[in-house]
Amino acid sequence: MNWVKFVVLLALLLVPLIDCAKLIEVTPVSGNAEERRFPEWFKFGAATAAYQIEGGWNEDGRGASVWDTLTHDYPELVVNRDNGDVAADSYHRFREDIKALQEVGFNFYRFSISWARILPEGDLSSLKQAGIDYYNKLIDALIEAGIEPVVTMVHYDLPQYVQNLGGLASPLFVKYFKIYANTLFRNYGDRVKMWITHNEPFDFCVEGYGSGIDGPLVRASGVGEYLCGHYTLLSHAAAYHLYDQRYRKEQGGSIGITLSGRFFFPASNETVPSVIDRALQYQLGWFTHPLFSESGGYPPIMIEDIADHSLLEGRTMSRLPEMSERERKLIKGSADFLGYNYYSSRLVERDPREYDIGSPPSLDKDAGLIYSVKPSWKRAKSSWLYVVPEGLRGILNWFKEEYNNPLVFITENGFSDDGQLEDHDRVEYYRAHLEQLLGAILDDECSVMGFTAWSIIDNFEWLRGYSEKFGLYHVNYSSPTRERTPKLSSKFIHEVIQSRQVPSNVISRG
């Protein structure tokens, strides 16, 4: 199908993020640098997450989330024993965040809702009107400011009550999530037209339910992460079909899921293309294959590998849950767009060692890969974040080739440092990544609808606390009023949005 017609067709589901009337004007390729602009329908936004910025952790009936439990019961796990009890205090200062969004000129704001703030015990028996009211005020204020709300339902902060019932490793989670999603659609769907069910299931499943190094600290390596992934997909599909059946016709919105993952480059001349694909399937295909492939279900390579490894371990069933035909059909196609968070890439090669049944199973062992980085890649403050902008274009092309060019929404991209206002490294990171993104759209004809900066303000960065900063605005965490101050990067992004071009020169603060 012609790319422009393809995007126009999908755009009918995605109003108002995409202005359908302007889509037909797109020129996919341009040789003139002055004409290399982001299309008029392409939108820019910034993101945050509830636990990372809101604070107000025990106000107005809010219940505990798994991150309240982690930071309060195991404070030694977080740098400087930081927590999100107050954070940027956006529960009381959200209008300051909106002011920052306006100053940069963003079209939309991706934020998450705290499930524990509106349904602390998971279902309607614990509904807190104060929580419902808070998000109504936030959504109304955004719309009044001309900024579209894009809502993530769960961004790591599962209610502790739901976790006590098994959390994402339990089939019960699907029922609770459907109740929660219905509550959101019913209360906010008249104004919210872009929904994201889950954020980064690879990360919260592997680190939260596998290795157990992250919230909710479940250590069930090799089993827990696959159960978590299974019920993440089923709960996402349940919310999608609920919206289809009850709300889509009236509310006219769209639903997707946000995935995370790196692109992979060969570690040596001996690294064959199948190794690159193997790495991508284990990190992204785990979720994209069930949702976007023509056949549905888990990637065949994962099904085969994990079944073989489980048999070697003496198990009577695979550690990867079997997806029934009904589940496969329920999940397949249950997304209007693919949200994707890109930060970094890696080199990859096959691990030559035989599978070791003497050590605990894990997704990494099942994948059988060795990852590395190029010495020339610059590193951010975060130990995991190496600057590889060409990886963004690579992964967008993989989505295009693997899944027939699905509509992709870049839902996070950002750079960490110490919080300096003259954040030249962040400016260069964004410049390089936006150039690669523009090439993917104009030259490669990848279907990408928008770009989201992480983050509008400095926030609580999970186990790293406040030691790593991603914001376009500095937050004074030593002050009770948490003043927000614009950084150089906010000026840079403002220029990109206004000109719809990527400046080639380095701007100076003025």
Automatic annotation (TrEMBL):
Keywords, in A-Z order: Glycoprotein, Glycosidase, Hydrolase, Signal
Complex and partners: Homodimer.
Uppermost EC category: hydrolase
EC number from the UniProt entry: 3.2.1.21
Record has Signal as a keyword: yes
Gene name in the database record: 6047405
One Pfam family this sequence matches: Glyco_hydro_1
GO biological process terms, semicolon-separated: carbohydrate metabolic process
PROSITE patterns found in the cross-reference section: GLYCOSYL_HYDROL_F1_1, GLYCOSYL_HYDROL_F1_2
Record InterPro entries: GH (IPR017853), GH_1_N_CS (IPR033132), Glyco_hydro_1 (IPR001360), Glyco_hydro_1_AS (IPR018120)
Source species, domain of life: Eukaryota
Listed GO MF terms: beta-glucosidase activity
Family that this chain belongs to: Belongs to the glycosyl hydrolase 1 family.
Keyword Signal: yes
Coiled-coil parts of chain: none
Residues at the active site: E412
Protein's name according to its UniProt entry: beta-glucosidase
Signal peptide: 1-20
Species annotation: Culex quinquefasciatus (Southern house mosquito)
